[in-house]
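Consider this record:
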Amino acid sequence: MNVIDQIRHGADGILVLGNHPEIVQSILDFDFLSGKPAPSIIGIVTQNRRALKCFFGAKEMLIPCFKSVSTIPETKKENIRFMLNVQSGRRVFESTVSFFETFPNALGGHIFAENMPESQATELIKRFGKEKLIAGPSGVGLLVPGFLKLGASGGVGVPQLVQGKLSSPGSVAVVSTSGGMTNELIVAVANAGKSFSVCIGGDRFPVTSLTDVLALAEADKQTEAIVYFGELGGSDEYEIVEMLEKRQLTKPILCYIAGIIDEAFDEHMQFGHAKALVAHKDESARAKREALKKAGAIAPDTFPEFLAEMRKLPGTLTDTNAIDIKPLMERQKSILSTRKIVDLENVPEYVKGGKLVKRGENAFASATLHALLGREASPLAGAFVENIFELLIDHGGHVSGAVNTMITARAGKDLVSSLAAGLLTIGPRFGGAVNDAARTWMDGIASGKSAADFVEEKTKKGELLAGIGHKKYRVGIPDPRVEALSQFVSLLKKHPHYDFARSVEEVTTGKNGNLILNVDGVMSAVLLDILAEADKFTVEELRELADAEFFNALFVIPRSVGFISHFIEQKKNDEGLFRLPDELLFERGD
């Protein structure tokens, strides 16, 4: 079974290397118009984002993005069959080699960039030219109507995809060195339908040769005829001549060779593609046409004649149901999440028959976790977060966040301004270290070092240990919140993050009694263990939560309530504008 047959039997998983939203969206539109139940793009390798928002039909979706090929989850790797490389010409060699080394069973790919160094292109030919179907460098890629769109082949707009009838398999193979002409020919043969289309690329050294592509067409049972567009320069067309003469190509082939205009100049001109320059007499458009005609190809002298001959080709078009594209044309990406946090279509009943209806325990905490995590949390996680919320609402009016809230309130500002003033104090020294503490415990376990060695390494680098230390509490005078939250580890089979945190505490308190495990440290450690065991979060997923500052949110949410309570108290008392007492001010000399 050749690669075209494998595609028609469902091999279509694409990994995109680089970021080209227009081409990516055009592939999703092709998939949708072809009636596929899911997109063919598995993921995108790019450095600057976690996901790319696109559409599948009229519905928004997110395509996952990865920093490198090696970071793609195993569950996704098994479905990847093709590479679409839209990186710059200077980068495509290394990324292409990396792709095929990681996915040795992949069937092929497309290199979109022009001007790839010729030495690198020839190296790719040596490594993969005979084993993989690789369109390019420089071109629009590969198209198997109704099954696979790999690149910009057939266009990138919905009207172009519909006009070219790309969801309708046919019986004519379209082959060209020119990306633009490939798309023009796809539209031109739309009434007969395409069996498949390949743009081998306009650079001098395509990875998959014209001979190999034509051999695919010859072997493909669905292909009844071939349409080829070439140009002056290079020797590609003589590969066709040789195949015809050796009877390796027996199907009708219609060829047009552009570039007769070159004869009007005193010297040969460089046209659009790297190889579109006559270096020898037999590379002229006229010489190629004559050679093709002599070998048995249909090679008209003018483009109108070429189009007329195209209408005579054998072929049938498989009719497909018309699709209303109006919703696709009117869609607009939202700039915010479309995920429904609260379902207003399923509002619970709180009062029934004059009685209050009892809701589930830890309902608010569970609903909050569901909103933050994007999935249902375990009862244990809900109970733990409920306790966090209760314990962290307030820690007195003397802490920096509460002070800022009260001062702003006494200045006559409103609730939101006062709350914002308090929240803006949250950071690494006040309440914002929960996230860093989570990273500390994960890093410690990942390092494989003992707690003593881990602390020593941090100390030598001059780094603080988030989650360790308190101004008020110390050895012998423990923080009651830490003791309360620590009780949850008894409900777990394993608690590696908590154990590591306590081991670090043993080391640090040996140096200073105030360097105890604080509430930030215990919150993050225990919650990491709960999410790992009870909610089945992977290490990678826990890292993603830390990167998104999920753990800090569990301090911000309850403490916002505390700040608001201080605001209300100040408004009720109305003591006027706050000023520092004179005795706290220092006179400055001139």
